[in-house]
Structure formats: structure tokens, C-alpha cells
Design brief:
236 residues; mainly beta; Methylamine Dehydrogenase, Chain H
Amino acid sequence: MAGNVAGVLAVTDQNDGVVFFLDINHPESPVFLPSVTLPGGGRGRDDDDRRRGPRARPVGVAFDYGPGVNQVVVADENRNAVHVLKLTGQATLDSIRSVGMGKRPQAIAVNPGRDYALVTSEKDDVFGFTPSSGEVTGRAEAGKRPRSVAIDPETCRAVVTNSKSNSASVLVGPCNVLKIFFLSPSTAKVGSGAFTLEIIGSGFAANAQVNFGTLTLAPSSVTPGRIQVTAPRPRW
């Protein structure tokens, strides 16, 4: 089970290969949203007749969220794949991308705002993964039978628990991957007054600075996915 975007939970059904979404914005009366059947999933004779390849078995799920990002990433151990479910603003399905991922992927953790995820595999591997492109970016060996994984969003360090070796592994992810998605405002008129510039992206360090013409400005606020800085009056 995973939860984040706008008070919505995602719950996987391992038997039928389905992801259920539950709106808990009003906890006293939660509402089920339309579910998503994964490739190879479904129930009943009709679904069995249409199925091609192994039956879906989703065992890990995590939300990926940020500016312009609203998606769920699912580890499917039977199909040796990760499914990226891109959602609309109403948490209904927009598209599905499936990517091959090692042998029997188990758990998945996403570092929100950095377009980076880690997936554990039953073959003692941990894979780095870029949800936006579906690219597998790296592989590391962990202990025997890596299961759960969690990422610290500030340091990008990850902890992997290994069930067969009764141990934990610490991995270091790419915190320095810098991306800029958009600026607000995107333009400024010559002669206008000072204004607050918001930079939306990923991979921003806590000590980030902004070069504005010949000036170097210290932001008033920095998170891994957002910078706010007061820009002086444009004089170009």
C-alpha cells in the first residue's frame, strides 16, 4: 500500500493483478476510485482467455509526485516488470508503461521530485530506475533476498533490508541530478519592479544559489524540487 497525491491511497491485489485507489480526503467516508488492471491481470474466464504471458502479481507500490508528476510505480514479480501508471488530476488512469526489471522484483521506493526510484529483486540485486523515461540507470548487489527499501529524500541514501542474510544494506543515490521543469514568472518586463522567482525542478541542493545576470542570489526557500528567490528590478 502507498499513499500521497491529494489524499489518495494505492493498494495492490496480488491475486488479480489490480491496483485499487482509495480517496481518504474525508476519512469518515472514504471513496473507491476507478481501479487499474495491470497487463496480465484481471479476474474471471474472460480475463484468462485474453491474458498473454505470466499472470500479474503486484507486490510493491509507491507514488511518484512533484510538479506536473502524478503517477504510481508498481513492482510485478511474476512478469519481472515495473509498471508506471500515469494518472490524471482525478487519480484516474492516463497511461501505463511497463519496463523489464531483473528477476522477481519485490519492493520499490521513489525519491519524489528527483525522478529516481530503487527496485529490489529476488536475485539479490537492487536496480536504479528513472520513472519518467522508463530507463534502468544502474544495478547494485545487496545482501541475500533484498526485500524492503526506503529512500531518504534529503540525502538520497537508501536502506535495503535483506531477509535471507538478516542484514541491511545502505546505498547512495544520485542527489546531484539537477533538472529544471519551469519558471514562474517565465518572463519579466524591463523597468518592472523586483519580483519573486519560483524555479520548479529536481535535485536542488540545500545550499543552492541562483545566477541572475551578473548577480548571485541566495534563495529565500529551497527544497529538492523548488527554489524561491527575490529577483531585483530587471535592467536589461
